[in-house]
Structure formats: C-alpha cells, structure tokens
Design brief:
Elements: H1 3-27, H2 30-37, H3 41-48, H4 51-74, H5 81-94, H6 100-111, H7 117-142, H8 152-168, H9 170-177, H10 184-207
Helix pairs in contact: 1-2, 1-4, 1-6, 4-7, 5-7, 5-10, 7-8, 8-9
Amino acid sequence: MDKDKIDKKDHILDVAERVFSDHGFDGASTRMISGEAGVNMAMLNYYFGSKEGLLLSVIERKISSSRDILQNIGNDDGLSQLDKVGLYVDYYSEKIVSNNCFQKLLYQELGMNRRTELADNIRDILMQNASELKKILEDGVEKGEFKADIDSEMVVATLYGTKNYVVNMPLMTSTMLGYDIQDDKILEEQFKPRMKKYMKDLLKSYLLK
C-alpha cells in the first residue's frame, strides 16, 4: 500500500476512534465518520467493509503497538521476571489516562455480554496483551523466581480488574478514594502513581518465594 493510501487510512482511523469514543459503538455511524473524515462512503467501505470492521481496525491498531512494547519487555533477558512485571504494571497504568474514553467503550461492549462476532473479536484482540503478562508470570515460575503455585489468571484479573473498577465506577470510587476519579489531572498525578505502587507491592508479596 503506497504512502498516500496509508495516510488516508490512518486519518480515517483517527477520526473513527474519536467518534466511537464520543458516541459509543451504537451511537456512531459510518456516515458520521466518513463526513468528519472528509471521505466518501465508498472509500470507507473499501478499506473496512462495515462499522464493525472499522471498530476492529481501530482496536487492532492500538493494541498492536502495545503488544510490541510488552513483547519486548517479556523477551528482555537482562531483566528479572519481577522487573518485567513492574514494567508491565507501569505501562498498563499509563493507559489509565491515555484515551480513557475509548477504553471505557471497549469494556462497555464486552460488559454487555452480547455474544456477537464483534464482541468475540474484541475479546480476542484484548486478550493478546493480557497473555503477555501471563507468559511473564509463567516464565517466572519456570525459572524458579516465582512461587510454583501462583494463580497467573487471577493476577491478570487483579491488575485489569482494579483499573476497570476504579475508572468505570467513578461514583463509587471517587467517594472511596477521596478525590474525583473523572478528573484527568487527578488520575495523572494521584491515582496513577498510587496504583503503580500498590500493584507492584501486592504482586511482589504474592509472587516471590
């Protein structure tokens, strides 16, 4: 694909990501996205086929860049497995503020328990990054750094679940934590470092012999 086509496709994906974030999957339309992107419907359908295909392309683009970073962490032989877990926690925690509205959209789609092909595809894409953490944990057990009886699936659920509970239930968690969790500055300056420290301390205590 030549550079002009790549640039045009990336532009459509940028616009689609914003529209999906603002309006949700059900509220967004391909006509709305094509209008804001300044392209005709024929071009949008040519590249992505459907609204579902467009959303999946947006998700895959975001996840693929993260996957490369997480794989590099997992494959770095100069790091201990605990250091790798810490770097994974750092990277994942940074995503709390980065495009939080779009992350909420993804988890809302999965949380609806709609057993559709779209939901299954979203799940499969997101699971790729979760699997990178699971691999780090299993390698830690194999190398003798972590306890043999750790529950790697529950570790993944603990990390992802803590973030999702705090961010997706702001009425509860703002009262519990004592500050407005919907304020991006507070997320950046107060909650994000708090979550990093807590998860690292928790996992260190649980994982090490």
